[in-house]
Amino acid sequence: MQSPSSAAPAAATPTKRPWALYALTVGAFGIGTTEFVIMGLLLQLAGDLQVSVASAGLLISGYALGVFVGAPVLTAALSRMPRKTALLALMAIFTLGNIACALAPSYGLLMLARVVTSLAHGTFFGVGAVVATSVVPPDRKASAISTMFTGLTVATLLGVPAGAWLGLHYGWRSTFWAVSAIGLLAMAVIALFVSAREAGAGSAMSMRDEFKVLKRGHVLLGLGATVLGFGGVFTVFTFVQPLLTQVSGFSDAGVSAVLLVFGVGMIIGNVIGGRLADRAPVRTLLGSLAVLAGVLALMGFAMHNPVLAVLFIGLLGAAGFATVAPLQLRVLDKAQGGGQSMASSLNIAAFNLGNALGAWLGGVVITQGAGLAQLPWVAALLPLGGLAVAWISVRKDSAATPPSATPHAQAC
């Protein structure tokens, strides 16, 4: 539960042009670029650092696990700090971590630098989501979350292909130098456009009380659905470069163009998911997970054809990011009454635990000899599991809601 001073921005009349919300998208762009750009650099990293492609893929798992650990720890540690100050501190950690990545002389030190960079990720998005929902009307909360995450999706559309191009022509280290510059820009924009009043004061809750949100069954179910849903996306997307070159027949240079299609899909899915979740959060939550499972299953057939491969890479981006706003909103709603910042950060951690799960599962599929072409079919099982978990949570809602209130429950 936030202190009265921290809740004040939510009670204020929302601005017509919430510049704080747009400023957060710049930070999200930088974080999204550094998180996803490794996918376009796997072969270069593996060759330069003399490790296998599967080992290079663990740089994604290491980052994701760092987010998983860092999100609750930093959220609790920074909970009493004014939110604007916390956001700037987190972007400073992010920038220094990327500089360390650019300078890393070995695989082990690069992994360490990636983990340091990742520590800021979950708390930035978690605190940012709370700030984003506080500057818009109540019926626009899901869209506010999707707007902030637009920075993440644009990072995939522009940042990741640009990073892959830089890595191909100037070496993978140049990519991390570029991301470090984005981090500095994000700090400047947040400092200018996020006011202390809009961001809010820190929480008055103790660290122990912050973690009590984990005792809520619906919050845990929401986190589980997030892990499984995004685990399916990253079982495939972690290995998108070798999948496109070795199964679909694209050249190394052609991968960047296909990643642009994935980015376009992410933006479209993110916007659609946010708008639909504003109107019907529960139906959007269940429907988006079902669609994601279907897209992954069909990808198993499509990846052998270059044209269909491009189409389904775009559909994967759309289906995957259509789940983001409803999943995040579900956890925020179920944490009302105390611990929203912690729940929000934990859900970002859950997205990244899903990333780590997907990268690990994809590596197992490859190393056990099943082959790259089998990845989509294995991946489809995870969002199906997420759909089952979300359905259990929805059924628990229905069982706890009086019949006269059922229509409202379904709308919420």
Automatic annotation (TrEMBL):
It is found in: Cell membrane. InterPro entries: MFS (IPR011701), MFS_dom (IPR020846), MFS_Efflux_Transporters (IPR050189), MFS_trans_sf (IPR036259). Signal peptide: none annotated. CDD domains: MFS_NepI_like. Residues 20-398 form the Major facilitator superfamily (MFS) profile domain. The keyword Metal-binding does not apply. Keywords: Cell membrane, Membrane, Transmembrane, Transmembrane helix. PANTHER family: INNER MEMBRANE TRANSPORT PROTEIN YDHP, PURINE EFFLUX PUMP PBUE. This is DHA1 family inner membrane transport protein. It comes from Roseateles asaccharophilus.
